[in-house]
Write a structure and sequence with these properties.
Strand content: 25-35%
Largest sheet: 8 strands, parallel, barrel
Number of strands: 40
Radius of gyration: 31 Å
Structural class: alpha/beta
């Protein structure tokens, strides 16, 4: 079966470019619930027309409805899904379990694809989503080829993997950084990319988390997946055209020549393959951020207002250059206004030529040896023209059946429950066959109306003649009465649970932390397991109160299965999971299952879907607004946990922050302190995983007093705590008092 090449479209022009240059499918966003909320995205009319054109070409269109949805937004979600159904979208890409439930129950004609925001990074996670009705899973970008292959081997499940474009430092869906820092949530499509900022830390002031771009290039031929995905819904049509063309040629076995260079000139950070060929540390670009371009040489000499170098590529007047200058976050860029070869002014300098280029007067700190990049090429800008249809040419219209009946004093046209009548005096036709032709011709037109003729029935028993002008008027009158059929979905019912008197839960990754706590005040103790955990580590804990928690990220499920089996054998039946993989590794029966916050519950529909996944309770998301938390807690189908204190991971990453080579790494726990704009952070590097934390703990104890939930949770996880600290903090929180130093994330913010 042909592997699908899937291209992005942030607007309709990018969509047309993608189709012209060989995309088998295009993914795009609508005006709401798109994980690229700041892209132009598609209005309904544009979507209708674009899908019609794509289907005419035999291609597919997927709509990204891949943000989390708040409780009050569920009616608006229906409007978005109505548009998807009406416009005949081939599939919707989903992150939120609540969206999945609404689609599955009210829009069964829409296929469901699991977004990369669901952080599917192992076979077990994919299997859990397949059971819910997802026909395709977009795998995490962090995976290696063998890991991708294991998921791709699941029978009757399509897989999709990114092959080119921007990379997030965090696993998608496991990042709260932008939300906590600015109120702009990545899970809502509004990320401000604080990870690309400069931080001051152990290795100086640099970009610790700024990722290179992914570019698998010829390695796409090794991909075992159903669909190869290009990132770039915020990129231009020119970029989409160039990248789509490049990978189309690779897949079809055609020469790519210098087309990779074209991409670099349009937009490109330095390229990497991430972990596709195995774990790779060379995926961070610490010195510069943003578009770099194609490297074409180094400064060899400096004139008074010029630079001299041997260009490795043809360049022309008005092309854009960038020069890397140490100490500057971004390269210094300018447009070539004047250049000389052998002392003569020229418009074009060929590759291999020594060229002198006049630089702007504001150029500073230029010196010999600095690298020069071609960041914009006039020639490339004109190399990717594309053909697009005329406006409304492929607009999808509602198919209708029409009957037309002629009488001596009137003519009547009907469609469904609508009719149009024109009265007059109609006489016998001299050429009856031409009357039939005229009626067919007239009603075969639809103009601006959103309808198109399917079947036509004509009754003209007295063989009367009707002028074409009358027929056209009759058609217009009938067609304008017919409203386009919309799929008016409904929200599936949610069973509401009865709130109980709130109880307290303690969560830890070190049971020794709780040595001095009076556990009679605690309903439950959640213990976060690790790969070295032993049953004997729990000997000091009251077994009836212990719940065992699995981590959100698990790259080696085989290593965890023996641990899980030992705990089950020892009689531990209460479990908590933070990712869908946990649903597959735990038994289907006899388990008391809790969902942790990274399985996002932003609406009551999601809580009902959690129940289907065997959850007995859910945990409210840490980045949600207080007003929505209250509504979800009130309408939830399951008992509700709210974490009121803890060290929240701002992100979890498979990219290493350490400076050492992998071969010399002990992979033990290492903490690094960072600072940005006076704000302090702690970074934990352990076992090839990086987690970022605010230096201050998250604490919302004062607000918790007024939120009705079933459980308040206090977490002592990841960071080190003294046993006396734990007692003092817990006692304070039980009085609904905040600790002395804290942050509240975006709890009382106005944006999400």
């Amino acid at each position: 079966m042909r592997t699908e090449l899937l291209a992005p479209a942030g607007d309709i022009e990018a969509g047309y470019a993608a189709l012209y240059y060989g995309a088998d499918a295009v993914y795009l966003g609508l005006q709401q619930f798109s994980a690229r909320a700041t892209a132009t995205n598609f209005a309904e009319d544009e979507l209708n027309e674009f899908v019609g054109y794509a289907h005419y070409l035999g291609r597919k269109v997927y709509a990204a409805v891949n943000t989390v949805v708040q409780e009050d937004e569920l009616p608006q979600l229906l409007q978005t899904l109505d548009i998807c159904s009406h416009c005949k979208i081939d599939a919707v890409i989903i992150q939120d379990l609540g969206v999945a439930r609404v689609v599955r129950e009210s829009y069964p004609e829409l296929e469901m694809h699991a977004s990369t925001q669901m952080a599917v990074h192992n076979k077990e996670g994919a299997l859990a989503l397949q059971k819910l009705g997802f026909s395709r899973v977009v795998v995490a970008r962090e995976l290696t080829l063998p890991e991708i292959k294991e998921i791709a081997d699941i029978p009757n499940l399509e897989t999709e993997a990114f092959i080119h474009g921007a990379l997030c430092y965090s696993y998608s869906g496991l990042c709260l950084f932008s939300s906590f820092e600015s109120g702009r949530s990545a899970n809502r499509g509004k990320c401000l990319y604080p990870c690309r900022s400069e931080f001051l830390g152990e290795f100086g002031k640099t970009h610790y988390f700024s990722m290179k771009d992914m570019a698998l290039q010829e390695d796409v031929l090794k991909m075992p997946v159903t669909s190869l995905k290009i990132e770039g819904r915020k990129k231009t049509a020119l970029y989409v055209a160039a990248v789509t063309d490049y990978y189309r040629r690779l897949l079809d076995g055609k020469p790519v020549e210098n087309r990779d260079e074209h991409i670099k000139q349009i937009f490109s950070r330095p390229w990497c393959k991430f972990h596709f060929m195995g774990r790779d540390k060379n995926v961070i670009e610490r010195n510069f951020v943003g578009h770099r371009g194609l490297k074409i040489g180094k400064i060899e000499r400096l004139g008074k207002h010029s630079i001299v170098f041997k260009t490795g590529h043809d360049i022309g007047r008005y092309d854009g250059l960038q020069i890397e200058i140490p100490g500057m976050e971004k390269p210094f860029g300018f447009s070539i206004q004047q250049m000389r070869v052998e002392g003569k002014n020229v418009f074009v300098a060929k590759a291999g030529t020594e060229v002198e280029i006049v630089v702007p007067s504001q150029a500073k700190n230029l010196c010999k040896g600095q690298e020069i990049y071609l960041a914009s090429s006039t020639e490339v800008k004109g190399a990717y023209d594309y053909v697009k249809p005329r406006p409304n040419e492929y607009r999808q219209k509602q198919q209708i059946d029409v009957s037309v009946e002629l009488f001596e004093d009137k003519i009547v046209a009907k469609a469904a429950d609508k009719q149009a009548i024109i009265c007059g005096k109609f006489e016998a036709a001299q050429q009856p066959e031409k009357v039939i032709e005229a009626i067919k011709k007239s009603f075969g037109k639809s103009g601006e109306a959103d309808v198109a003729l399917d079947k036509l029935e004509i009754k003209n028993d007295k063989v009367l003649f009707v002028p074409a002008s009358v027929l056209n008027e009759l058609r217009r009158d009938l067609y304008k009465q017919i409203e386009p059929k919309q799929k008016l979905g409904i929200l599936p019912e949610v069973s509401k649970h009865n709130l109980t008197k709130p109880q307290w839960i303690l969560r830890t990754d070190n049971v020794g932390n709780l040595a001095l706590v009076d556990l009679s005040d605690v309903a439950e103790i959640i213990v976060l397991l690790n790969e070295n955990f032993k049953v004997s580590d729990l000997s000091s804990m009251p077994k009836n109160k212990v719940r065992l928690a699995l981590p959100a990220v698990c790259r080696k499920v085989s290593a965890w299965k023996p641990i899980i089996e030992k705990m089950l054998t020892a009689g531990y039946r209460k479990w908590e999971i933070a990712n869908y993989w946990g649903c597959s590794v735990l038994p289907e029966k006899g388990i008391d299952l809790s969902f942790d916050a990274p399985i996002y519950m932003f609406n009551s529909q999601a809580t009902e879907m959690a129940k289907e996944l065997r959850a007995g309770r859910i945990t409210l998301p840490a980045e949600d607004l207080l007003i929505n938390l209250q509504k979800v807690a009130k309408n939830s189908a399951l008992p509700v946990v709210w974490e009121v204190y803890g060290d929240m991971p701002l992100f979890t990453s498979a990219a290493c922050i350490r400076d050492n080579d992998c071969k010399d790494c002990k992979r033990g726990e290492k903490w690094i302190k960072l600072e940005k704009d006076g704000h302090k952070y702690d970074v934990c590097s352990k076992d090839c995983q990086t987690m970022l934390f605010d230096a201050k703990p998250y604490c919302v104890a004062e607000e918790a007093r007024d939120v009705a939930v079933d459980f308040y949770r206090v977490s002592f996880v990841y960071k080190k705590y003294k046993v006396e600290q734990v007692v003092d903090i817990f006692e304070k929180l039980q009085k609904f008092e905040d600790v002395s130093v804290y942050h509240k994330g975006n709890l009382v913010g106005k944006i999400l």
